[in-house]
Design goal:
Layout lengths: L24 H9 L22 H15 L2
Length: about 70
């Protein structure tokens, strides 16, 4: 998978890349509520999947960028 920019921790599995067209709102709403987060109404939030590097400093940098962009 290195040619696609993603390397999984488990070399026996695929990268899991795919497209989920409809968000399972109830699932995400219940999961986030269990973490103390109340989601906006359906259609007013997004969910993303990000492949992160193993380097902790790079992870922190990328998390900062994602947090900044998510506020837009």
């Amino acid at each position: 998978l290195t040619h696609r920019g993603a390397v999984g921790a488990d070399p026996l599995m695929g990268d899991g890349a795919g497209v989920l067209v409809q968000l399972p709102d109830r699932f995400f709403r219940e999961e986030m509520a269990s973490q103390g987060v109340e989601l906006p109404k359906p259609g007013h939030y997004a969910v993303g999947h990000v492949f992160m590097p193993h380097d902790p400093e790079l992870q922190a940098h990328i998390e900062g960028i994602i947090a900044e962009v998510a506020q837009l």
